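--- STAGE predict ---
source: upstream dedup step, 1 unique chain passed
mode: sequence only
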Amino acid sequence: MPQHVVIAGGGFGGYYAAKTLERVTPKDVRITLVNDVNYMLYSPLLPGAAAGTLEPRHIVIPLREHLKRTELRLGWVNGGDPAENTLRVDLLAGHRYDFHYDQLIVALGSVSRTFPIPGLDEHAIGFKTIAEAIALRNRLVRHLETAEEIDDPAERRSYLGFVFVGGGYAGLEGIAELQDFAVDAIKRYPRCREVGMRWVLVDAADRVMQEIQVQLANFTQRLLEKRGIEILVKTTVTSVTDDSVTLSTGETIACRTLCWTAGVKANPVATTLGLPLDHGRISCTEEMRVAGYDNVWAVGDIAAIPDPARPGQPSPPTAQHAIRQGKLLGKNVAAALGHRKKIKPFKFKTLGAFADLGRHKAVANLMGLRVRGFPAWAICRFYHLAWVPGLERKSRLIADWTVEFIFPRDTAELGQLGHPPALDEHTEPRGPEPEDATIPTGS
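--- STAGE serialize ---
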């Protein structure tokens, strides 16, 4: 029988592992990738899609187009038995299937990390999937439309309040891009301008952007505050309702949009695979082998792979690490199958960090060199162009960024996409769509 490699997860780690395996193994090696969607999300560009700068389809990579030999199976991993070399999957068609493998790569990524805060699960929206990003933009536009129709300024204020929780990359880039879009959009809403918007970033740490140098973090905070974004550090959320957010300082903010970006945790499916865990992540050697197993590997956010730059610590859950882990892992798995000479340890160290702040501004730390403003923004764009797979996707991004320089972003609210009315509803009077219809949860 041909050798069979099963890859669970189609994010950065899984995609690049599959791409590398296609290149370095013979054609008789069978490669199967299991994922819940048929694309890889290029997540660093998610804020741009949320703000309408980028077309959402331009930041996803269709797996069937870019993986030529890999068999793609859509489904959800719900367990496994490494002793029997099986991975249990609930397939999209509705039945359960056990995949038998010679080598298994676990690349199931991470999910948002939340806390038991009253009202958080009911009223907050995440910022990790394409569905959440587009729903956030749709909610923003719909709330502008709603506020424009309300006569009571106090009631109007809650629709114009926006709170982001989390001062890392996702939180900073998300609030910067969305606020930038909203400042342009509100020019078309005269009654909303009478009240004005309130944008607040909340973080429990003593400063934002713990991942970059203090000087760049301070510059970022000053830049956003000049735009009117309030940044509250050493502050947490204590409760959330439909129209307000209460903080640990005792302040209650009128707000109907709370975006939660306060960190990630390994996909909880890791607990069902029968593999050793290290603080929720799968315990791995420096070669990315799962501890205690010769034919099981893990990569990306779900894997606790030793970080060469920080002895005793796992590699951080970033795209640049997952991409390089995936490339090396593909070669290591090929070596384990006997098609390459040597299995090598993961030795990559972070080259730098970028944060895109909208309005053609960014901050960057390039191996200790601090860059900010427009030069950092340009570097950030070139970096993403270098790493987005495929000439077609690169061309589409260039077109989107060029159009953004010339024309304003539109304010069409397309929250009903994916929620078409039944045929018999076409002839009936229609009221407002339920709020949930504009906020798909994603997978």
